Each structure stands twice: as structure tokens, then as C-alpha cells.
Amino acid sequence: MPRARVAILSSAVCPRHSSTCTKTFCCRWRLQTVLQCQVSWTANLVSLYTYSERA
Question: What highest taxon heads this organism's lineage (predicted)?
Fold first, then answer.
């Protein structure tokens, strides 16, 4: 099964996400951008967190 290289989530997985964090998620993923998008389930803008796999 292929491994994901990009993950786009609608919630922040680790509120302290940084390069020095030792949590499993932070060791594998690097936050690239945070986008504000319109979605169908609410009138408010929703943050989308784009992560890429660390090399």
C-alpha cells in the first residue's frame, strides 16, 4: 500500500506542532500551510491544515 506524502486536516493534531516536538505525528509530518476555506456544513470559514511528510 502506498504511503501518504500530504495530509490535509480540518483540525490541528498537535497544538504545539514544531520541529522539536517528539510526538509521533510531529516526527513524521511538517506543517506547510493553514488555509481558510468555505465548507458546506457551516457558514463560518474553516481552517485546513496542510502537512507534508518529513524527509
Answer: Eukaryota
How far apart CA 13 and CA 19 sit, in angstroms, is 14
21 versus 41: the higher-pLDDT residue is 41
HSE-up of 32 (CA within 13 Å, CB side)?
Answer: 13
What band does 49 get if pLDDT is binned at 50, 70 and 90? very high
What integer pLDDT is reported at residue 1 of this predicted model?
63
Residue 26 CB: number of other CB atoms within 10 A?
19
From 10, 49, 53, 7, select the one nearest 30 (Cα to Cα): 53
Predicted TM-score of the model (pTM): 0.76
CA–CA gap between residue 5 and residue 45 (Å, rounded): 26
